[in-house]
Amino acid sequence: MRFFIALEIPNENKPEFQAIQQKLSILIPQARRMDTEKIHLTLAFIGEQPDELKDKLIQVIQNAVKEISPFEITPAYIDGFPTLHNPRVLWVGVKGDIDKLFLVAERIKDELSYLNLPVDERRFTPHISIAKLNNNFQIDRELEEKLEKIATDNFAPIKISSIKLFESAPDGGLHKHNTLAEVSLG
Q: Out of 3.40.50.720, 3.90.1140.10, 3.30.70.2190, 3.40.1190.20, which CATH number does the structure's domain 2-184 have?
């Protein structure tokens, strides 16, 4: 099974992401929009592991959220990986109670290490992927300014009350995300 741990974006926040993607489609017609039904904020990508690991991963999440109360994050800016000027992925960064987000992500990383699972050693950058681009796409200063204007909209806070364990399963050349477990905060 291909596992990952993430915050699911609630349905009430998805129209804002659809609006961002529509504006992106006008600015960058070649951008391939992510399915807003599957948008999420990944805390840890675990990858292909035996199905039997599911219960241990649920325990990882339970340990990571101990004494963490529900919190809010708010979409704040658009950036890209590996860089905004030469992106393969465009994403929305967040502000708000990100200290809690970093704490949960670090605890998950520690717990995965205890299970001898590979962990991403890169600095955690909380983000919600919204579009993919070809490797040779470049963003100039004028386009960057237009992207900044999209991010100046007043976005509604995203209420985070649980962390989910997902399975990413092949589905006709794409992947569908199945929720395997949900662990409530608080």
A: 3.90.1140.10
